[in-house]
Amino acid sequence: MTTTYAALLRGINVSGSKRVPMPELRTVLTELGHTGIATHLQSGNAVFRSGSDDEDALAAALERALRERFGFAVDCLVRDAGYLAAVADACPFPAAELEGKQLHVTFFDRPVDAERFADLKAGDFLPEEFRLGDRCLYLYAPDGLGRSRLAVALGRPRHVKGLIATSRNWNTVAKLVELTRG
């Protein structure tokens, strides 16, 4: 039995650094024995099928293969189709009413509790807001991520120290849900 997964690579193909061409990413995934491989955008989103049911082991194998092929470390998160659908379904913001650039999901490698962000006072960032989910954080930034003061605050080391975290806008989340369903 195979499971469909999405691999979320952190920090590649940004400003010309950590270049991972998508055809080569597909090759790496093929060499790891995965099937049904597709990539989305240039920012490190891949969908594949595997007989493994261990997301962490799949991520670790992909990280090793990328380091061997490209000579630099790339943090990876692997999430199955059911998890991605649950993240979309649990969105606390009215996703259907918003532009994709206004809503973002930061995926974490493990659960995160509210204590980590307790120093952030919601009223200081309005109309921007965030909510925690299952190994993720939803961010509503009406003016987009590039202008978000809350995104900057959430990314400070005291909030993300010791975590692997990577963000996707809502359009990408929705596309990954669609790709992992098909």
UniProtKB/TrEMBL annotation:
Transmembrane annotation, as ranges: none
Pfam families according to UniProt: DUF1697
Source organism superkingdom: Bacteria
InterPro entries per UniProt: DUF1697
Stated name of the protein: DUF1697 domain-containing protein
Source species of the chain: Streptomyces griseus subsp. griseus (strain JCM 4626 / CBS 651.72 / NBRC 13350 / KCC S-0626 / ISP 5235)
Taxonomic lineage: Bacteria, Bacillati, Actinomycetota, Actinomycetes, Kitasatosporales
